[in-house]
Automatic annotation (TrEMBL):
CDD domains attached to this UniProt entry: At1g26750
InterPro entries hit by this protein: mS23_dom
Protein name in UniProt: Small ribosomal subunit protein mS23
Compartment(s): Mitochondrion
Alphabetic keyword roster: Mitochondrion, Ribonucleoprotein, Ribosomal protein
Regions annotated as coiled coil: none
Family membership: Belongs to the mitochondrion-specific ribosomal protein mS23 family.
Length: 185
């Protein structure tokens, strides 16, 4: 039906009129109460922009590594550091601070917070060593390391999972039989 123009209702009417399709049960009800039609955008979708967006772009230019280290977690309640930076710059500008000074201050706050997080984790590891325990997982890992940690179990699983080992064995047998067939012909 992709070659036909119109919505579901008009397409179905055409098919029923042309006897290409039996009349569906829902057609009469849908003709009485047709679905709402939404205005078309003509391909011009307006981009949503927030007041802090220019500062977020400047933040990522200054700290490109932050895109990978401070991942945006959609389900998290805490905003990402870039958004905090942008909001802080706006807050400082409202207090009659110049834009350059506001950005410098927000940048300094970001760097000190990052250093404090690293120091706190180093202290946690040190305490764990003194107690003879394993170091705790990093509470502030980079996004790449988080993804690698999630995938690690699947990477190891391929060597020990009996189902995967059976598939590998079957694939090796098929390949060996194909090689023998080629050699025979």
């Amino acid at each position: 039906m992709s070659y036909m123009k119109g919505d579901l209702l008009s397409r179905t009417r055409k098919l029923v009129k042309g006897l290409a399709k039996a009349e569906p049960v829902w057609l009469k009800a849908m003709e009485r109460v047709p679905p709402a039609t939404f205005p078309r955008t003509d391909g011009k979708i307006k981009q949503i922009s927030l007041p802090e967006d220019p500062y977020i772009k400047k933040f990522f230019k200054k700290h490109p590594e932050s895109k990978y280290e401070d991942a945006i977690k959609i389900s998290a309640f805490d905003p990402p550091p870039a958004r905090i930076f942008g909001l802080r710059v706006l807050e400082l500008k409202e207090q009659a601070v110049t834009e350059d000074e506001a950005m410098a201050l927000a940048d300094m706050e970001y760097r000190t917070e990052k250093k404090e997080k690293k120091k706190a984790y180093a202290r946690l590891k040190q305490i764990a060593r003194f107690q003879g325990k394993r170091a705790p997982p990093n509470p502030f890992p980079s996004a790449v390391k988080e993804i690698q940690a999630e995938e690690r179990k699947y990477v190891r699983d391929r060597f020990f999972n009996p189902k995967i080992l059976a598939i590998v064995k079957r694939m090796k047998e098929e390949r060996a039989s194909e090689i023998q067939e080629r050699a025979a012909s």
